[in-house]
Design goal:
alpha/beta
């Protein structure tokens, strides 16, 4: 049995300005995305195994969620309980839940119970902040590079997603 955490994040639309180091007494010049281009990173993580599965999509809907569930299913060793929030596409009737997965919906308004929020915060602050994108393809390429750079560092998934209260051992 494995515990996985699932969530999505939007990248690109009205990008955020993040804190940065700069000379005391001066203001840094930073860029900010102004147009409404965006893409989504779907991701699930198993901190105990220090692994994550994800993909980048130009849309966030039940079809993208189905692709994501199928990807998770292929990465699970045995059976997985996947904790996720109450987004509409997580519980769409048209979803076909793979047999080796059980979905467990978190209570509403409780992002602190999903460590994927910490994962996104770390990924975005290190790789995806203070950027301006020229196209959807540029967003998706940048997200792919950021994702690979982040999850390929041994221990990153375990460090950002582990919770003492969610251990099976």
């Amino acid at each position: 049995m494995e515990i996985w955490y699932e969530d999505e994040t939007r990248v690109g639309q009205q990008g955020s300005i993040s804190r940065t180091w700069f000379i005391k007494g001066q203001r840094p010049r930073l860029v900010r995305q102004q147009q409404f281009l965006n893409a989504y990173i779907f991701s699930a993580a198993c901190p105990e195994k220090d692994k994550a599965v994800g993909f980048i999509s130009p849309v966030c809907n039940k079809e993208a969620m189905q692709i994501h569930l199928d990807m998770i299913s292929q990465s699970v060793e045995g059976h997985a309980v996947i904790l996720l929030d109450g987004a509409g596409w997580h519980s769409a009737k048209a979803l076909i839940i793979p047999k080796n997965i059980t979905l467990l919906k978190l209570p509403p308004y409780s992002p602190e119970l999903n460590p994927k929020e910490n994962f996104w915060q770390s990924l975005k602050s290190k790789y995806l902040s203070n950027l301006v994108f020229s196209s959807i393809d540029h967003i998706m390429d940048t997200c792919e590079k950021a994702w690979l750079d982040f999850v390929n560092i041994k221990g990153n998934v375990k460090k950002t997603c582990s919770r003492k209260w969610a251990s099976l051992s």
